[in-house]
């Protein structure tokens, strides 16, 4: 698909209630190191309008994401209002020695300080979504961090809040109940060990919580490369990766792709413009997952 059409598709959904709707696919910026700026610019140029990052120097170069955003805005590729910018507060356990806040400060202060750094890094006055990178060891700690995130939201500096690496249905239910500002995003691995989050996704859909996936391709290579999936992809004239992303989209998931290839950026965005997969083709991919990664019947995709 041409970049222009892909861009329109990436923006589908538009704004709701003054908030920029989350794009149906997002560009992930982990592990890009010194190539971050160049790759984020390429992703925006290709048509991505959702960027995921984190205030976590161990895995993300958040300042380079900000440089790319500023450059893309300056050169007229995008305006700030059209890009869904998402970052994370990463608790101490997920940081290396480059902790981007005072590790001895109270949790709420760590969240505030990390967020100030994110705004500076990203060269923006607000983010579209602030995500808790993972729940903390106790509910009390998780809630302390969440309360600080709620304050940031109320100040208008994070339009939505989310949580990541939250795989237990009880845990996200608890957070949703305890939160005054409800999580509107859950960002999780899409993999067999959790039954591809089947129950959690059903709950999330009912509550209006958007599910974002990572490890989408890398955790499921046997299924993507299986003969039935290859046969469907061949018939539809797409790659196995594209078919799999389309399958995931039709499950109601917003996949993240962190591709470093410009060709794959276009291939991934083209998935948004693919024709709807038939029920039989959806079943073929779901069956391949079940057969390649056997799970109890209750945990199927
Ligand atoms: N919340 C968390 O804890 C967490 C953890 C991990 C990741 N994330 C987020 O999720 C993003 C995505 O990470 P990921 O773990 O899913 O992996 P990824 O970095 O997106 O890597 C996916 C792999 O898929 C390949 N790929 C992508 N499109 C393809 C295509 N059309 N055809 C063939 N291969 C293709 C890429 O290779 P090429 O580069 O060659 O295309 C790459 O090897 C990260 O950047 C980050 O933002 C969040």
TrEMBL record:
CDD domains: AKR_AKR1-5-like (cd19071). Transmembrane segments: none annotated. Pfam families: Aldo_ket_red (PF00248). Gene3D superfamilies: NADP-dependent oxidoreductase domain. It comes from the Eukaryota. Residues 30-288 form the NADP-dependent oxidoreductase domain. GO terms for molecular function: oxidoreductase activity. PANTHER family: 2,5-DIKETO-D-GLUCONIC ACID REDUCTASE, ALDO_KETO REDUCTASE FAMILY PROTEIN. This is NADP-dependent oxidoreductase domain-containing protein. It comes from Diacronema lutheri (Unicellular marine alga).
């Amino acid at each position: 698909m041409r970049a222009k059409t892909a861009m329109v598709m990436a923006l589908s959904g538009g704004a709701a209630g003054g908030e920029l709707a989350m794009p149906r696919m997002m560009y992930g910026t982990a592990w890009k190191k010194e190539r971050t700026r160049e790759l984020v610019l390429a992703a925006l140029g290709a048509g991505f309008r959702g960027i995921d990052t984190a205030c976590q120097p161990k895995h993300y170069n958040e300042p380079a994401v900000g440089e790319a955003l500023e450059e893309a805005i300056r050169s007229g590729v995008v305006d700030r209002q059209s890009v869904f910018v998402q970052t994370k507060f990463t608790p101490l356990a997920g940081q290396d020695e480059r902790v981007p806040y005072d590790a001895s400060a109270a949790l709420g202060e760590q969240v505030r300080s990390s967020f100030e750094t994110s705004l500076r890094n990203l060269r923006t006055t607000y983010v579209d979504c602030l995500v808790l990178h993972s729940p903390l060891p106790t509910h009390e700690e998780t809630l302390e961090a969440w309360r600080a995130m709620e304050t940031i939201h109320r100040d208008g500096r994070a339009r939505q809040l989310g949580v990541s690496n939250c795989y237990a249905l009880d845990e996200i239910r608890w957070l949703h109940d305890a939160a005054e500002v409800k999580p509107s995003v859950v960002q999780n691995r899409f993999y067999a060990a959790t039954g591809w989050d089947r129950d959690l996704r059903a709950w999330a859909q009912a509550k209006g919580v958007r599910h974002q996936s990572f490890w989408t391709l890398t955790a499921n290579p046997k299924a993507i490369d299986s003969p039935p999936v290859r046969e469907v992809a061949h018939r539809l004239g797409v790659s196995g990766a594209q078919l799999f992303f389309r399958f995931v989209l039709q499950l109601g998931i917003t996949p993240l792709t962190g591709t470093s290839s410009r060709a794959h950026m276009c291939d991934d965005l083209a998935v948004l413009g693919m024709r709807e997969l038939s029920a039989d083709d959806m079943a073929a991919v779901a069956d391949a997952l079940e057969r390649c990664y056997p799970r109890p019947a209750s945990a199927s995709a």
